[in-house]
Specification:
The complex is a heterodimer of chains A (about 260) and B (about 450).
Chain A: E1 2-9, H1 20-32, E2 35-42, E3 56-59, H2 67-74, H3 78-86, E4 91-94, E5 104-106, E6 112-114, E7 122-140, E8 143-157, E9 166-167, E10 170-174, E11 184-185, E12 187-189, E13 192-195, H4 201-204, H5 206-219, H6 232-247
Parallel strand pairs in A: 1-2, 1-3, 3-4, 4-13, 5-7
Antiparallel strand pairs in A: 5-6, 7-8, 7-10, 9-12, 10-11, 12-13
Helix pairs in contact in A: 1-5
Chain B: H1 2-20, H2 28-36, H3 40-43, E1 52-56, H4 61-74, E2 79-81, H5 89-99, E3 110-114, H6 120-126, E4 131-134, H7 142-145, H8 148-158, E5 165-169, H9 173-176, E6 184-190, E7 215-217, E8 228-230, E9 243-249, E10 254-257, E11 260-263, H10 270-284, H11 290-297, E12 307-312, E13 315-321, H12 327-338, E14 344-349, H13 372-376, E15 379-385, H14 390-399, E16 407-410, H15 415-424, E17 429-434, H16 436-449
Parallel strand pairs in B: 1-3, 1-4, 2-3, 4-5, 5-6, 6-9, 13-17, 14-15, 14-17, 15-16
Antiparallel strand pairs in B: 7-8, 9-10, 10-11, 12-13
């Protein structure tokens, strides 16, 4: 068994919405894939951050007010993070933190934060919060799947520049997605995912988690032991939430349920 | 003239409601009256802002307000308040309509209102309270609030409207960070007690509200509340709060403050902060000595539905309320169960969010909670119920290492099914955790079926 290294970026600063569950899910499935998972918290106290040393890098949502401090700390590692993404290795980013990795964040008070620019999107802080379920189809590692999660939207993401290898991660069946006006959900670049989906997404959607671990292993030259996992509990959860989502009252008009 | 029409209309509504059902309508009169006069609250006469206190924060507002009211009334003070928990401006307006004469003059020694943390700036523009108590600012109602900083900024703006005396929880980092905002600061807190705890490395703490680096808790007296410091800027709890609960004895239900012994009407750790807050306000705001406040403690009864012990067909059901999307209240319930050495059944209904459109199926906050001590305690079985999120709740227990065979699920809030499952338990020691709405339905069921 080899070590499966998970970097958890700024867990105490980007600390919202129970996203610790995603770390537990990655660890659980990495173990099933025949590895010994180890979680490394990367934060202001980390002496040297080498993204290349990790199999998966995960970043949870945080308060936008914290973003400048995080961006400042991560900026010296920007090229290494870009290389990680360009090599097709999985950087998984959820919720508001998608904006951290974009080019610019426009705040409600008129100020602007320059992002890490790993993806080209511009994010705009919303005046009001929007919370809802989301439900979308996507393809990850050539596997088609449907994902159900939640979304606590405090920013809108503008158009995705598909000439730069970035495209929507999912096509919404229901939900607010990137801006509530179309069916685009999140961004995928290589095998890195920048999604609005919470849940925790990787607990509720194990088929995605398995593919992320598989990709992480393949791209880092590690064996992947096939996973025989009984998803009946997750499937029951999916079925009841799917019914709920497709029949509930909503003011969203961007998707035809 | 608009004010008088609004006031009299509000009084008429209050009168009609009291004929139909006295327990209803805590917002209605204020809401309707403010349609006529949107600045109704500002137009009442006889209110000295120095005698006005707002109580706000994520958790503990209602209990603290009730406790303060109890102490003040027992010490002969006339208090105008909104004990019913209607904490938007309409609730405040309704309370003032009730307490005023036909000319809009309000007679009261003190005006103490629980106020929703989002609406403090709105209410304070009409009623410029010179005193504000902040219990805590934590993860809560994310569908409306997003994150704690969203509320923090609103509240910070509210403190900038004129001089204000702040009563701050010394042991909660966001509340304490207002210590540079008020014209006078009074802190309250609690010394480390026997049920204080720490969390494992895999759990997150929070970002410092001042510099966004990591907040470190030496221990938690309650989830998210305890002795803390920021690793970067030095923001920290004071070594001792101005009003500090000490010598906590849960077994004998006693604690001390400044050497004076108090009865502890509720022996759950989070109540210590409500006690400390109430005593700080009693002394600093009401001029009530600790000795006189102590006399009121033994007879305090909290509002129903927070923690109730119910009898049902020979079983003891310990009901605890959670606020949905609020990991701190869930963690508190978990800690109470974990500290019970007896065999128990855990019945947990996290429930979907249905208080606004769109409803949604969120249970992610459960991953912020440390279940390890509960899982290691003597649990006979876990029962996860409630529409849509029961399977995710079950999965949360599985992620904590619980044997799936010990977990049953019911994708429903049908009380017949829930109580049938409770009847099947071998143990008589049942913990039932849901949000308040489900409790009311269950309470009716127990009253009807419990002693058959």
């Amino acid at each position: 068994m080899s070590e499966f290294k998970i970097a958890w970026l700024f867990p105490d600063t980007l600390f919202l919405h129970g996203e610790r569950g995603n770390i537990l899910a990655l660890s659980r499935f990495a173990k099933m894939a025949g590895h010994t998972p180890t979680v490394y918290k990367v934060d202001f106290n980390t002496k040297e951050f080498d993204p290349d040393a990790f199999d998966v890098i995960f970043c949870a949502p945080g308060e936008i007010s914290s973003f400048p401090a995080v961006i400042e700390w991560l900026t010296p590692y920007k090229e290494k993070l870009e290389a990680f993404v360009d090599q097709g290795r999985p950087l998984i980013v959820t919720g508001t933190s998608v904006a951290l990795f974009g080019s610019r964040i426009l705040r409600q008070d008129g100020s602007e934060i320059v992002g890490l620019n790993l993806i080209s999107v511009i994010s705009k802080e919303n005046e009001d919060v929007y919370g809802d379920d989301n439900f979308f189809k996507c393809v990850y590692n050539e596997q088609q799947m449907k994902i159900i999660g939640n979304q606590i939207q405090m920013i809108d993401i503008d158009e995705i520049d598909e000439t730069k290898g970035e495209r929507p991660f999912g096509e919404l069946i229901y939900g607010y997605g990137n801006c509530g006006k179309n069916t685009k959900e999140g961004i995928i670049k290589g095998n890195s995912v920048f999604t609005n989906t919470l849940g925790p997404m990787l607990v509720c959607n194990p088929m995605l988690t398995i593919e992320i671990v598989r990709v992480a292993c393949e791209k880092h030259g590690k064996d992947f032991q096939d996973i025989d996992f009984d998803m009946s509990l997750e499937n029951q959860s999916y079925d009841t939430k799917k019914e709920f989502i497709l029949t509930k009252e909503s003011e969203l008009t961007n998707c035809k349920r | 003239m608009k004010f008088y029409i609004a006031l009299w209309f509000g009084k008429l509504i209050n009168g009609l409601i009291s004929i139909v059902d006295k327990s209803r309508g805590t917002n209605l009169a204020g809401e309707k009256a403010m349609k006529i006069d949107p600045r109704l609250v500002a137009h009442f006469k006889g209110i000295d802002p120095q005698k006005v206190l707002f109580i706000t924060g994520t958790n503990g507002k209602s209990t603290t307000n009730n406790m303060i009211h109890h102490i003040f009334v027992n010490n002969g003070k006339n208090v105008v308040t909104n004990l019913e928990g209607a904490n938007l401006i309409y609730g405040v307006a309704t309370a003032l309509i009730k307490a005023s004469t036909m000319s809009g003059r309000v007679k009261g020694d003190y005006f103490i209102f629980e106020t929703d943390e989002r609406y403090v700036p709105v209410i304070r523009k009409q009623l410029p309270a010179a005193n504000l108590l902040i219990t805590n600012l934590q993860k809560d109602q994310v569908q409306r609030n997003g994150d704690p900083d969203y509320i923090y900024r609103k509240l910070m703006d509210a403190t900038k409207l004129g001089d204000i005396k702040l009563f701050l929880n010394n042991d909660e980092p966001r509340a304490k960070s207002f210590d540079e905002s008020g014209s006078k600061i009074v802190t309250y807190g609690a010394a480390k007690h026997a049920d204080a705890f720490t969390k494992g490395d895999s759990y997150v703490t929070m970002a410092c509200p001042k510099c966004h680096h990591k907040i470190v808790f030496d221990y938690y007296n309650n989830d998210g509340v305890g002795k803390f410091h920021c690793e970067n800027c030095g923001h920290s709890s004071n070594k001792t709060a101005d009003y500090n609960v000490t010598d906590v004895d849960f077994e004998n239900r006693k604690f001390k403050m400044d050497g004076i012994e108090f009865d502890m009407p509720y022996d759950t750790p989070y109540m210590l902060y409500n006690y400390a807050a109430a005593l700080a306000v009693a002394k600093e705001f009401g001029g009530i000595s600790l000795e006189d406040a102590a006399k009121a403690f033994g007879s305090f009864k909290n509002v129903e539905g927070r923690y109730e012990i119910l009898k049902y067909k020979g079983k003891t059901i310990k009901y605890m309320r959670i606020k949905q999307e609020n990991p701190e209240t869930l963690q508190t319930c978990i800690n109470v169960m974990a500290s019970d050495p007896n065999r128990k059944m855990v019945a947990l209904g996290l429930c979907p969010l249905i208080d606004m459109i769109p409803n949604y199926a969120n249970s992610f906050y459960a991953f912020d909670c440390d279940l390890s001590k509960l899982v290691k305690s003597d649990v006979e079985s876990y029962f996860c119920f409630s529409d849509r999120v029961c399977y995710d709740t079950a999965n949360r227990f599985i992620y904590e290492g619980v044997d799936p065979d010990m977990i049953s699920t019911a994708d429903t809030e049908d009380v017949n099914i829930i109580f049938r499952k409770i009847e099947e338990a071998e143990t008589d020691n049942i913990y039932l955790i849901t949000w308040l709405h489900t409790y009311y339905t269950m309470r009716k069921y127990i009253d009807k079926e419990g002693n058959k």
